[in-house]
Amino acid sequence: MCQQLLGDAAFYRLLLRFDEDLAAAERVLGCRVCGKRLEVGDFRRKPRGLAIELGERFAERLSFCCADRTCRKRRTPASLRFLGRKVYLAGIVVLISAMRCGASPVRMRRLHELVGVSRHTVARWRRWWSEGLPATRFWAGLTGTLMPPVAVADLPASLLERFAGLPEERLLSLLRSLSRLSVGSPGEHAA
Predict the structure, then answer these.
(1) 3-class SS of residue 88
(2) 113 alpha carbon, distance to own chain's centre
């Protein structure tokens, strides 16, 4: 599952389309502060992990700013491509972190060749899944809907297993569930 999805351009283009749909729905709502119209305020990200070229639009974080010059509050919709401030794409963070057998030297070399990730980065992601995510309000709300509870030590694999379908459908479902984590500052989701 992992290697196929890591380099699947069609899958990542689909994620961009979903992000565009989420952004369109968000824009209709207007400014959260004053209710006025929102203007496009997309900004560049430098997403890591893809050896394939998906175009400049893929590297943009879709966002808006209030049209009222006295307000100018930013409104950034949820994203299936980006997971908070992580520089690697969300799908890559999930798939590599979900590896059951761990990161052997051979596997790490292959991952480095595929997506440029280091052993240190993978270890940091694993800590986030086992310590950072479970400490958020988001996780507290999500765990109430998961019966039986998922094994925190096996995240994100234990979450991926909860979804039905082909591997790309399961990953897409998990990314949809996590998309709220892509919005706002890191402190907003802390428990």
Answers:
(1) strand
(2) 22
Quick one: pLDDT band at residue 34, thresholds 50, 70, 90? very high
How do residues 44-94 score in pLDDT, each as one tens digit? 998 888 767 788 888 999 999 999 999 999 999 999 999 988 888 999 899
CA atoms 134, 138, 141, 145: torsion sign: negative
* Tokens (6 digits) for 76: 């950034």
What are the residue ranges of helices labelled H in the chain?
A: 2-6, 9-29, 90-97, 105-115, 119-127, 137-143, 157-160, 167-178
Amino acid at 82: F
Whether the Cβ atoms of residue 82 and residue 61 lie closer than 8 Å to each other? yes
What single-letter amino acid sits at 61? R
What CA–CA distances, in Å, run from 130 to 153, 155, 159, 164, 182? 6, 7, 12, 23, 18
- Letter for the amino acid at 147? M
**Residue 105, preceding bond cis, omega within 30 degrees?**
no
pTM equals 0.85
Within a 13 Å sphere around the CA of 47, how many CA atoms are in the beta-carbon half? 27
SS3 readout for 30-75: CCCCCCCCEEECCEECCCECCCCCCCHHHHEECCEEECCCCCCCEE
